[in-house]
Amino acid sequence: MRICLRYAKNKDEAVEMVNDGFMKVFMNMHKYDRQRSFNAWISTIMINTSIDYYRSRIRKIEMEELNAKHEVEDSENILSHLNYEDLIKLVQKLSYAYRTVFNLFAIDGFSHEEISEMLSISVGTSKSNLFKARENLKKMLTETPNPSLQKINY
Predict the structure, then answer these.
(1) Radius of gyration of the chain from Cα atoms?
(2) What is the pTM for the complete model shown?
(3) Is 122:64 a contact under the CB 8 Å cutoff?
(4) Rounded to whole angstroms, how far apart are CA atoms 86 and 152?
(5) Where in the chain is the domain with CATH 1.10.10.10?
(6) pLDDT in tens, 35-83
(7) Which of 4, 40, 81, 84 could form a disulfide with 17 if both were Cys (CB 3.0 to 4.6 A apart)?
(8) Under a CB-based contact definition with an 8 Å cutoff, are residues 20 and 4 in contact?
């Protein structure tokens, strides 16, 4: 549920993604390679299901392509100061494009090359969306009324 919740706008969407994901797990159990981690296999299915969820519902997502001149900060910088629940609340406020790239890169550990293939976008767009996601998160952190989140300084 945690994986899908990161990609969803709300809990209802996450539940739908989890249901779809477990249907895929059960339907494809015969494809599972016992030499690999079962949890990693399920996580991959849930991530792909979350992405497929939006692909099937959104006709076209406009993603701007910019030459990302700014160096992207280390993703651990943002994550290390937040507890999981606070991070999820903030990430859910991001647009679909920013939320997806942020989750795939900063939380799930995919490279920009892998993200570009998964989402059918350029590497530059992936980098740009990650940069903008982090900027939006920083802005939310400074504007949030939650005292536990205001302790973070950038």
Answers:
(1) 16
(2) 0.57
(3) no
(4) 12
(5) 75-150
(6) 999 999 999 999 999 988 877 765 444 443 333 333 344 444 555 566 7
(7) 4
(8) no
What confidence score (pLDDT) does residue 53 get? Answer: 84
Long-range contacts of 36-45 (CB under 8 A, 24+ apart): 43/3, 43/108, 45/21
Asked if residue 48 lies in contact with residue 17, where contact means CB atoms within 8 angstroms, the answer is no
Which tokens go with 117? 């293939």
In whole angstroms, give the CA distance from residue 2 to residue 21: 12
Share above pLDDT 70 across residues of the chain, in percent, rounded to a whole number: 76
| Closest C-alpha to 110, from 126, 124, 96 | 126
Contact 68, 131 (CB under 8 A): yes
Specify the CATH number of the domain 75-150: 1.10.10.10
d(CA 127, CA 149): 25
Residue by residue, DSSP assigns 35-70 as TS-HHHHHHHHHHHHHHHHHHHH-S----------S
